[in-house]
Amino acid sequence: MKPGDVLLTSLPQGDGAQKARPVLFLCRVPPYDDFLVCGITTQLDNAVDSLDEVVARSDPDFLSSGLKTASLIRVAYLALLPATRFKGRIGSVAEPRRRRLLTALATFLRNTI
Questions:
Q1: pTM for the predicted model, two decimal places
Q2: pLDDT in tens, 14-70
Q3: How far apart are CA 108 and CA 85, in angstroms?
Q4: How far apart are CA 9 and CA 108, in angstroms?
Q5: Domains of the chain from N-terminus onward
């Protein structure tokens, strides 16, 4: 697995239940090489401007993402997980998209101080 991959794992929902869902692997975090991931949802109306990003069917990396329909990458829905938590890889997004998302996260965090 490499950064930019779309992986499947279980994440807690708002009601506390666990749900299998796709996540985007952003980067590894030392010292244990855990995976920093963000959740992906089909609830496009949950988008946060300047932070989240839609993967539309018309995007060049939609097919390679493995997503079944237009989806929202929720940058602030973060989790740090060990490699053993993933059920598999379904695809990947383009490297420029992953970099944009990391930049959006860094900008957001910088502006909250």
A1: 0.92
A2: 787 888 899 999 999 999 999 999 999 999 999 999 999 999 999 999 999 999 999
A3: 27
A4: 25
A5: 5-111 (2.30.30.110)
